[in-house]
Amino acid sequence: MGAWRAGGFRRPLAVALLFSLFSAAPALAQATAEDPQATASHPSPLRPEGGNVWSVFYGLGLNQEINHSARNINIASAGVRWTRLWSPKFGGILRGHPGLGIEIVPVTAFVKDGQIAWALGGNLLYEHHFLAGRRVLPVWKIGAGFLYADREVPAGETRHNFSVLTALGVDVMVAERSALFLGYRFHHVSNADTGRINPGINAHTMMFGLTFYR
After folding, report:
1. By the 8 A CB rule, do 9 and 115 touch?
2. How many domains is the chain partitioned into structurally?
3. In which band, very low, low, confident or very high, does the pLDDT at 46 lie, cut at 50, 70 and 90?
4. How far is CA 29 from CA 23, 32, 47, 175, in A?
5. Residue 45 has what DSSP assignment?
6. DSSP-based three-state secondary structure for 199
7. Distance in angstroms (rounded) separating the CA atoms of residues 107 and 103
């Protein structure tokens, strides 16, 4: 990775944060305080018939070496997500809304020893939004996608990589249909044996974002 640009986490973090705030500004401007009447008829922003969910997010991931995977490569990313929720399909502790989500991730930074490789990509997700309350809504996601970098990641391998991820978090409602998101994501990136070798990259990622139920 000797050819990667220097900058550590500062540059990707700043880019990710600015991207999230810029993307969220129009929706935040429309957010209104909770209406007591609406709260009484809808104990949560999850509509019985389902609906659309829009999100902006960024994440900071720390490398985890597993079974000889690549070492000391951390990940920062920012993106937007659209999710289509269906009506509840399960009961018991799984009571909630399943959905299908699409993530567009225009900013991903692979950071090693102060040097950065930039990438863009996207993910297709299955999501489950649990009916667990009005203010705090648990969410689980699992999915896979594709990344293309401006240089080989890890160094000496391929510029294209595939990603597999799973995440668990909560939406904390701050308005009738707007929430702050906080969660954990395990992110695996590899070239799926399309390169000379395939060490893979694993990261434990803290996710932050804004969610808008429509």
Report:
1. no
2. 1
3. confident
4. 11, 8, 22, 12
5. S
6. coil
7. 12
